[in-house]
Amino acid sequence: MATHFSSEAVAAPSRSYHGLYCAMHEYLDSWDLKLGSRILSADGITKAFIYPHTMYRYYGNAGVMEEIFLPDERNGLVVRVSGPLEGRCAFIPWVDMRFIWRTPRPDYRVFWMKEENTLLVSRVDDPFPEGRPKWIAVTANEPLYFKFDERMERRTYWRDAARNAMAYTFPYSPGQPGFEAADGASTQIVFSFGLGENEKDAMAEARFILNNFDSLKAAKLDRIESLLERADIETSDERINKAYRWARVSMDNLIMNQRGRGIYAGFHWFPNYWGRDTFISLPGACLDTGRFDDAREILLSFMDYQMQDTSSALLGRFPNIVNPDALQYSGVDGTWWLVRAAWKYYNATKDVDFLVRAFPQIELAINGALAKAVDRQGFLTHADHETWMDAGGSSHPYTPRGNRAVEVQALFYNGLIVGAEWAEEIARLDGSMRPQKETSVFTQNDELEKLAERWSKEAAKLKRNFNRYFWDEKGSYLYDHLRADGTPVPEIRPNAILAIWVTDGGLVSKARYKKIVHTALEKLCFSYGVTSLAPSEKGFHPYHLNPHKYFFDEAYHNGDVWEWLTGPMASCLIEAGETETAWELVRPLVTEILDEACVGTLREIRDGAYTPDKDEFGGATSQAWSLAEFIRVFSEEFIHLQGKQGLSRLQTKDDTTDSFDAEALGLRADSTRVPLEWGQTRFLEPMVLPISNWSSERKAVTVRGVVEPEKRNRKKAYELKKFTITK
Prior knowledge:
Layout: E1 3-6, E2 19-22, E3 25-35, E4 38-40, E5 47-50, E6 55-59, E7 64-69, E8 76-84, E9 87-99, E10 108-113, E11 118-123, E12 135-140, E13 145-152, E14 155-156, H1 158-163, E15 168-169, E16 172-181, E17 186-196, H2 199-211, H3 213-230, E18 232-234, H4 238-252, E19 255-257, E20 261-267, E21 270-274, H5 275-285, H6 292-303, E22 321-322, E23 327-328, H7 334-349, H8 352-372, E24 404-405, H9 406-427, H10 445-469, E25 471-472, E26 477-478, E27 481-482, E28 488-489, H11 495-502, H12 510-524, E29 525-526, E30 529-531, H13 553-556, E31 561-562, H14 566-575, H15 579-595, E32 605-606, E33 622-623, H16 624-638, E34 641-642, E35 659-661, E36 668-669, E37 681-690, E38 698-707
Parallel strand pairs: 35-38
Antiparallel strand pairs: 1-2, 2-3, 3-4, 3-9, 5-6, 6-7, 7-8, 8-17, 9-16, 10-11, 11-12, 12-17, 13-16, 14-15, 18-37, 19-20, 20-21, 20-33, 21-22, 22-23, 24-27, 25-26, 27-28, 29-30, 30-31, 31-32, 34-36, 37-38
C-alpha cells in the first residue's frame, strides 16, 4: 500500500500537496462540516493533539472534535466527528483526483448508493494508470441522506504560492452526505473513505475500514510500540528521548510499499523512491532500528531495476528514481550509496543468502562503471547534474559539478573496496553456496580472488590520484570537483566531509582528515546546521525563497542548510575528538522535532542565513535522510558499542530469549562519545546474533545496557554561531 495523508494541524490546507494520496495521485483535498446552517471549515480549528497513530482537532467555537486516522496497509481514511451536533448535519468532501504535479479541471461521475449508504466519485476521463485507484467511496456508521450540490473551486495555497510552484488546484464537491443528529445531544459519527480500482472495491475498502476502525487503530498503536521497544535510547532528559522516538515514528511513516518495499524521499513532493536518499537513509531507518527484513527487501527490490543494457553508458547503474510507472537513472551516486548500504546490511546480519544473491549485481555495477565511465586516473566521471546537488536537472543544473565530484570518487572507492571484500567473503564459502554460472562467471576461488585483486588495485590507483588531484594544500580542504579539462574547483562545500565519512577516513591521512573537519567546522557549520556552500563563496544564496531575485532551485545547493548533513558532520567531529561539538550541532534538531515546523519530524532544508521567527517552508516538510541520520547518530555514534567483532555463540536453538545484557555479551558503549548533557543513558540496540557456534542460523535480538558519559578530558564544545545578514 502507498497511501498517505497530510494537513495543517490548526488551519485549512496551505499546500496543494495536503490531502489523501495514493501512489503519487491525490484523491481528497479536504472536507467541511455543516451543523444546521453553519459551515465549520478547517479555519475554525483552535487546537490539535497529534499522536503517533492518530490526530485530534477541535473546533473551539462549536465544541466539536474530529479524529483523523490513517490505517496501516489500507487505502483509505477515517474521520470521526463528535460533539453537540444538532439537527440536520452534513459532511462535505472536497475531491481532487489528479496526479501529484498536475492541476486539471476534470469532469466527475457521482453516484449516491442509498442502499449501501455510500457516495461514489470518479473522474469521467479516467486518467489513472492500471493498478491505481479510480474511485473514492464515502460511507458512515449512521444512516446518511445525500443532497446533490456540485461545486468546483479554484483554491490558492499560500505556502506553495510562495514557492511559485503548484500554487492552486480545483477541488470538487459533489454535494452533502447528511445525517440527523438529536438536538443538543452529544453525538458521534464515523466517516470512512475508501479507494479502489472500481466501484465495488472502493465501497468494500471504505466499509472494511469503517467496520474495523477500533481494531485497526489498536493494531497501528501496537505496531508502533513494538518498533520502539526493539530499539530505544533513554537519556536523563525527557525532551531528548521524546524527540528520538518521534523521529523513529516519522521515519516509519516514510517506509512504504509502492513499487516493492522502499523509502519515500520525503513529504510533500517526494512520495517516491530516490536511490541516493533511500540508501543514505537505510542504515538509520532500518539497520539501527532492527528492521532487517525491510532492509533486505528494499535492497533487493532496487537491485531488480539495475541497468542491464550492455550498449548503455549507464551499464550497471541502479535507478536514482523509482516511480510507480517509470525508472530514472540520472544519478551517478545512488549506485554507490546502495553498495555501501548493502555491505552494512551484510555486516549487521551475516545474511549469506543475500551475500550470494546480490553479488552479480555488485559485480555488474563495478565492472560496468570501469568499462563505461572511469578515466585514466581511476576517477568515475559523470554529468553536471548527476550528483546529489542536482537542482535544475540536466536542462539547467544550478550547481554543475561535472565531471568528477569529490564525494562520487570516495563513494566509488568505497564500492571497489566493498566489492573486493564481497568477492573474498564468497570465496570463503562452501562451493555449493556460491553464485552459479547462470548468475555470475566467478564461481571458483581463484576467479573470485583475481576479481578481488583487480578491484583492490583499482581502489589503490584511485586513492593515489585522489590525494594528488583533490587535496587543496592552501585551503586545507578537498577540492569540490574536477572539471572535464582537469582544473580543480576549490569551493568550500560539505562534499569533502561526505568523502571522508563514506570511506571511514580511509582515503586520506589522519592529519588531512582533521584539517578537513576543522575547515568545515569553521566555514560551513552554524548553530542550526551545515550549509551547502560557505557564505564566503561567490554565488552563496542566503534564503531558499527569494523569488524577486532568483528561482528557489538556485538556492537548494548554494546556501541552503541541509539537515541530513548534520549526521555525517557529527560523525566526523566525533571521530576527530569533538563529541561535545557534535552534540551542539545535533541538539537543535531535538528542538525542531518537538517545537518547530512539521510536528514530530525533520524537514529537508532551512535558510543558510538566520532570520528570527521566520516560518521557513521552502523545502520538504518531512525528509527521510534527515530523520535517518538523526537516528543513526544517536544509535551508532553517541551510543557506540565496542566488541561486536568478538560475538560468537549466544543461545541454543530451543532458547526463545530475544533480549540480552550488553555486558554479558562482552559489549560496552564508548563513554567518551556520550554527550555530557545526556547523563546516565539506557539503550536498546538491535542486533543479529548466531544461534550457536555450529549453526549458520541467526536471530534478531535486542541488546540492552547502560552507559555513563566520561567526564574527564572532555573538550569544550566549539562555539557554533548563526550567519546573519546586516542590511
